[in-house]
UniProtKB/TrEMBL annotation:
InterPro entries in the record: PBP_domain, Phosphate_ABC_transporter
Pfam families the UniProt entry points to: PBP_like_2
Ranges where the PBP domain occurs: 35-274
UniProt name for this protein: Phosphate ABC transporter substrate-binding protein
Source organism superkingdom: Bacteria
UniProt keyword Iron present: no
Keyword Signal attached: yes
PANTHER family, per the entry: PERIPLASMIC PHOSPHATE BINDING COMPONENT OF PHOSPHATE ABC TRANSPORTER, PHOSPHATE-BINDING PROTEIN PSTS
Amino acid sequence: MLKYSRVFGLVVFVFLFAMCNQKSKNESEKETILKGSIAITVDETVKPIVDDQVAVFEGTYYDAKIAVKPKSEAEVINDLLNQKAKVVITTRDLTKAELQGFEKSKIKPRVTRFATDAIALISNKNNNDTLIALKTVIDFMQGKADPRIKGLVFDNPNSSTVRYMKELAKVKDVPKTGVFSFKTNDEVIKFVSENDGMIGVVGVNWLSQPSPTMAETIKKINILSVKGLNDATYYSPSQNDLAEVKYPLARDLYIINCQGYSGLGMGFASFIAGEIGQRIVLKSGLLPVRTPGRKLKIRSQIINDKE
């Protein structure tokens, strides 16, 4: 009887082992670099460019589905470190301490830089002065009152724009008075459009590619040209000034993949960094890492297409 029990137990074990292997195989087959589904957590200040990339990617590869989850920069990084998110898009690279944390977990993040973005400073259309010195903004962040600024408006206390400006001003915390925060870049733009003297701090992509509901609101604000700390000239957050490294509030965009296998995260990162993805970046008003090439056709005579 004992002999039969052992045989039966062995058969059950082999069956379960085979089923588990089959299940793992089936799950791995569900996702490749060009098919399957994945959620990516995105810094909300650059969501418009990511939405464009996802729309074209899914339109090109019908078996791929990507869900975009916008969050503040602090939440994006925390989700990545806590392995709640496997693929994220941020406005900064990982720090040495963060990389060491991944090394302890035997995870090697794949980091791909794909664009240069800009933080834009905006004011109400009633403000005739469309120039601002970066030092003026930094002084305000350091708690020094300035009659030219009634207040600074950010999208979120934990956003990448707040972190960026705090690092520039070399302050640990923002001033308790004169600094306002909302939840989204659209809310910042709307508030500035309705309040004179306020300076909004937003990702430039929200201005170059506004949603249909924000098109009229955008007309009520000015995008300010900024003078750097060691410069005498004012520059705008345009592709040209970004390309010439003249605009003082530029930052790079990264896609960080911690999947650990050849999945959809790798395929999407390759797409963004490739020819089509870089053309999407160029069209969005941001600066691509690699300028897409153009093919010129030289003709010896003009052909009339109407004939």
